[in-house]
From TrEMBL:
It comes from Cryobacterium flavum. This is Methyltransferase domain-containing protein. Pfam families: Methyltransf_23. GO terms for biological process: methylation. The keyword Transferase applies. Gene3D superfamilies: Vaccinia Virus protein VP39 (3.40.50.150).
Length: 255
């Protein structure tokens, strides 16, 4: 029995070509170097696999001596590997599925979404993070958010948690990419810097206490007021903002 007529079959081959061309165009449009904590002696991968996992994010101005970071912040990778806490879980209050966790790490927010009865997928460039998430039985794709993502335009909830608005070092490009992934009435939940006006892009390197150092990668930090201004440029409006346990968040939707 033929389920697909020859004509339709030929046409579907054309559609596939169109899809492939569209995917290439999307990848070109959004392509950015994407290597949070990777390269060098892989401190991010090391931290995900060890108990001693405090990381130091150095921010280097492009024109500064690479040996002298202009700022340093401390990150606890143990939080990424642990289960979601009450604040993490509150981000999912009232949201709909399917949920796409962008830069999901080992996947605590995917598990939290599943616990809420939501369909959820994670996407992350780190092979180690993806391996850990897959071993936990979570649905995760190893790729950049700027590469092909299935179901683009149909995601009801996008998550950018724990500094992930910094991915690619260009919040405008990331917000634009999020718009292309969201469904018409979808929401984007973003963890923001606690200073509302903070708006900083820089070359980051990740370090650990044992001296492991990553290659440089583009990163950014942004507070809620700065996010609101940038979001407006890609047709998003802020529908909520809140602070809990010293962490700040915003929820955005299409204008
Ligand atoms: C600060 S960690 C946050 C991990 C996770 N969101 C959490 O809260 O547990 C940033 C994550 O973003 C991932 N990442 C960086 N660039 C990415 C990209 N272009 N696409 C997808 N993931 C990316 C990194 O591999 C890393 O796992």
């Amino acid at each position: 029995m033929t389920l697909v007529s020859p004509r339709l079959w030929e046409q579907s081959a054309d559609w596939e070509l169109d899809d492939a061309a569209r995917d290439r165009a999307t990848a070109e449009r959004f392509r950015r170097p994407t290597t949070f904590g990777s390269g060098g002696s892989e401190p991010y991968a090391q931290a995900l696999q060890s108990d001693d996992n405090v990381l130091y994010l150095h921010g280097n101005r492009a024109d500064a001596d690479p040996g002298t970071p202009t700022r340093v912040s401390t990150m606890h990778a143990g939080r990424w590997s642990a289960g979601a806490d009450a604040i993490d879980r509150s981000l999912l209050c009232g949201v709909a599925g399917p949920v796409l966790d962008i830069g999901c790490g080992p996947g605590r927010m995917i598990q939290a979404a599943i616990d809420e009865g939501l369909d959820a997928l994670g996407v992350d460039v780190s092979p180690t993070a993806v391996r850990i998430a897959l071993a936990a039985g979570l649905a995760v794709l190893q790729r950049s958010v700027f590469d092909y993502i299935p179901l683009a335009g149909t995601w009801a909830t996008l998550l950018l948690v724990d500094g992930n608005i910094g991915i690619g070092g260009d919040p405008d490009a990331l917000l634009d990419r999020c718009v292309s992934l969201l469904c018409a009435d979808g929401v984007l939940v973003v963890e923001v810097h606690r200073d509302p006006e903070h708006d900083l892009a820089y070359e980051g390197t990740l370090h650990d206490a044992a001296g492991h150092t990553s290659d440089a990668f583009p990163w950014a930090e942004i507070g809620v007021s700065a996010l609101r201004r940038r979001a407006a440029r890609v047709g998003l409006v802020q529908v909520a903002e809140w602070t809990r346990g010293g962490r700040s968040f915003a929820r955005l939707a299409r204008a």
